[in-house]
Amino acid sequence: MRKRIAYPFLAIGCVLFCWINLPKSGFDWLRSKAASFVTYFSITPSYDTHELNRLRLENQRLRAQIDYVRTWLDGEQYIEKQAQLQAQLVKKASEKAAPSFFQRRAEHLRTLLLEQLFALPAQVIYRDPSAWSSSLWVRVGEEDNRAVGYTVVAKNSPVVSEGAVVGVIDFVGGKQSRVRLITDSGLSPSVRAVRATSGEDGYLAKGELHGSSAPFWRSRSPVLKGVGFNYDYPDEEGRARELNGDVPLLKEGDALLTSGLDGVFPQGLSVGVVSWVAPLKPGSYAYDIEVRPAASNLNDLQTVFVLPPVGE
Predict the structure, then answer these.
(1) CA distance readout (Å), 300 to 63, 133, 161, 217
(2) CA distances from 10 to 5, 13, 15, 19, 237 (A)
(3) C-alpha 213, offset from chain centre
(4) Distance CA 44, CA 66 (A)
(5) 166 in a domain, yes or no?
(6) How many domains does the chain have?
(7) 3-class SS at 31?
C-alpha cells in the first residue's frame, strides 16, 4: 500500500524552520505588525480609566517625594543633634586645663558637621539580589555636581545614613552612581575604638573592618569582621598600650569610629559597635573582633547621603 505524505506536518515544519532562521529585522517587523493588529481590535480604555491610572501614578510620585523630604529633614535633625553634642563636649573640654579627649572629639565633630552641610541626598534606585550585601545604585551623578557647582559625587565619596557609614561611591555616571557597601569584603575602613567613660579611656585600639559579602537576598544580621586591633604605637591620643594592660583595649559595647588613616573616610564617622572579642591566641599581637554595623537599616535603605570625597 502506498504511504500518504503528511503535507500538513511538512508545511508546519517549513514554517517553523523559516521562523527560527528569520533575521532579527524581519522578526521585529512581524512583531510590530502583530502588535498593531492586536491594538486595532482591542478595546480602548475609557477616559475615566486613563484618569484613574494617571492619579495613581501621581499619588506614588507624591509619596516618594514626601519620603524624600522626610529623610532630608531627618538628616538635618541629626546634624542638629551632632551640633548639640559638640557643644556638650566643648563644655566638658573647657573644664580641663590641658587638651583632652573631649576637646579632640569636639574638633572631629566640628569637621564632620562642615562636611555634612555639603552632603547630597540620594535615592536608592536599584539593588541586585545576587549582590545584595555588596553594592547598590543611587540616583546622583555628574549632573548633580554641575548643578550644585562643586564636586560631591566622586569615586571614594563616603556614603552615610543617619550619620553612620553605609559605604563608598565606586562608580559615577551621569545620573546614577554605584555604592560599594560596608558589608562587602572589598571595602576595609580603618577604625578606632572609643569608650567615652572618662578622658583617660577615650580612644583605644585601632584596626580594620571588612564585610562578608554574603550574596542572595537579604542577610538577616549583617556582621563585620575586625582584624589587627592593637595600640602598639603612641599617637596624638596617648601612649602605646599593652594588649593585656590595666585598661582593656577592646570590649563588648565599644563604639568604632573611622580613624581617617585609610584616606577615604573622614575621621569620626560612626561605623559599628563591638559585639564579640575573640580570645587572644598565644603569641598573638592583635585582637580579632565581630562588629554590628551602626547603620541598622542596611537591608532597607531608601535614601542615603553622599559626602564630598576626602581632600575636596
Answers:
(1) 17, 12, 11, 12
(2) 9, 5, 9, 14, 87
(3) 13
(4) 34
(5) yes
(6) 1
(7) helix
38-80: pLDDT as tens digits: 444 444 444 456 556 555 555 555 555 555 555 555 555 554 5
**Helix and strand numbers, DSSP H then E, in the chain:** 5, 12
- Domain interval for residue 292: 121-312
C-alpha–C-alpha distance, residues 220 and 214, integer Å: 10
Q: How far apart are CA 163 and CA 296, in angstroms?
A: 11
The residue assigned the cell 480604555 is: 45
Evaluate whether residue 150 is within a structural domain: yes
pLDDT tens figures, 206-255: 999 998 765 555 555 688 999 999 998 888 777 888 888 777 889 999 99
Q: What angle do CA 91, 93, 98 make, to 5 degrees?
A: 150
Residue 52 cell numbers, joined: 484613574
Distant-in-sequence, close-in-space partners of 78: CB < 8 Å, separation ≥ 6: 162, 163
Which residues is 164 bridged to in the sheet? Answer: 161, 270
Chain centroid, CA 138 distance in Å? 9
What amino acid is encoded at 133 in this protein? S
Cell triple for 36: 498593531
Strand partners, 203: 194
Cell numbers at 298, concatenated: 542596611
This prediction has a pTM of 0.67
In a domain, residue 64? The reply is no
115: amino acid identity, one letter = E
Helix, strand, coil shares of the chain as percentages rounded to 5?
35, 25, 40
Q: What is the CATH number of the domain that holds 231?
A: 2.40.10.350
Q: Does 160 fall in a domain?
A: yes
